[in-house]
Amino acid sequence: MKTLKRVALGVALAIVALFRVAPAANATTVTDDISGSIGGYAFSGDIILDVVGGQAISGSGTINFLGLTNAPLVLDTSGTYEANDGTVYAGADTNYPFDAIGMLFLVGTNTVQPGFPVLDLAAGTDETAFTGIVNGTEYYNITGTATITPTPLPSTWLMLLAGLVGFGFFSYRGIKNRPVALAGVS
Question: Rounded to the nearest 10 degrees, what angle do helices 154-177 and 2-19 cross at?
Answer without folding.
Answer: 170
